[in-house]
Amino acid sequence: MKINNYYVGDNLSLLSHLKDESIDCIYMDPPYNTGRDFGDFVDKFESMYHFREFFIKPRIKELYRVLSNNGNLIVHVDPTISHHVRIVMDEIFGEKKFVNEVAWVTGGNAKNKKKMNRWHDTIIIYKKSNKSVFNPIYLPYDKEYEKKNNVKICTIRNEKYVTTAAHNSQPDVNPRINLRYEWMGNKRQWYLSKKKMQEMHDDNRLEYSEKTKIPRIKRYLSEMDGVPIRDVWSDIKNMQAKEKLDYATQKPVALLERIVKMFSNEGDLVLDPFAGSGTTGRACINLARNYILFDISQKGQEKFLESIDK
Fold this sequence. Notes:
The chain is an alpha/beta fold. It folds into 2 domains: 5-137 and 229-308, Vaccinia Virus protein VP39 (Rossmann fold); 143-223, no CATH class. Helices cover 26% and strands 26% of the residues. The protein is built from 8 helices and 16 strands. The chain has helices at residues 11-15, 48-66, 82-93, 143-148, 194-202, 253-263, 279-286, 298-308; strands at 5-8, 23-28, 67-77, 98-105, 120-127, 138-139, 152-154, 159-165, 180-183, 186-189, 206-208, 215-220, 227-228, 232-233, 269-272, 290-295. It has an 8-stranded mixed beta sheet, sandwiched between helices. It has a 4-stranded antiparallel beta sheet with strand order 7-8-12-11. The radius of gyration is 25 Å and the shape is elongated.
């Protein structure tokens, strides 16, 4: 099976053509049992038991087989079926291989008088082993972060900074005799050697309390990575008009780029067995990854080829 191709057909049959541990990362957005008729496929199962045992489980077993030892499987569902998927994933991957459950805030205007409206999709991540790829993602600092973390401006450098403690408030828990010394009249167990403390002082990287003269370490935002991403994603909105391909289940490229970047490396091979309009493929092209796409829909393949020809 050639890489960087979109194959039309039943993914369970197509998966049988892939070698063991040949895929570095898998993302899938399976049917949600919504009852909708998509033309090539009616998203309706006899029961959730049937969905779990006879549809999802055989496919996840095959995906586990083809996933490399350092790979991740990312499953994009909604909250109505996420627990069914978790049951299968725990059984096949093992409970300890669970990584994260992400809430992607999609928004929505539907009104429901009997229950709360759903505002998120669920993205479930499992790893094949403890060697599986994870590349942390950092977001730019925003006003909310600055407010919560008491961000200040250094007038000398004209840069924003936060402060962290320079001394250990519980030295008996982790005693370090070599780090216990007097600094500016305060004897503490410091996090820095006396030589390093002097260097920080000379470089205007210490902030002193007016009353106690106890220093705190300045950390300039320009030298920090950003805010580590957490498991609620509200910064990626649904698709912009320019990327819509008239495909019902299409996801934004920015979402797939984040997932691909976080759970694979350049040159890796990414599989999407429910590829739809091929957003995963476009994300891989943008990020220098290889891809294999499966879907039962001929329309999905056409939309993908149309999008990459633009």
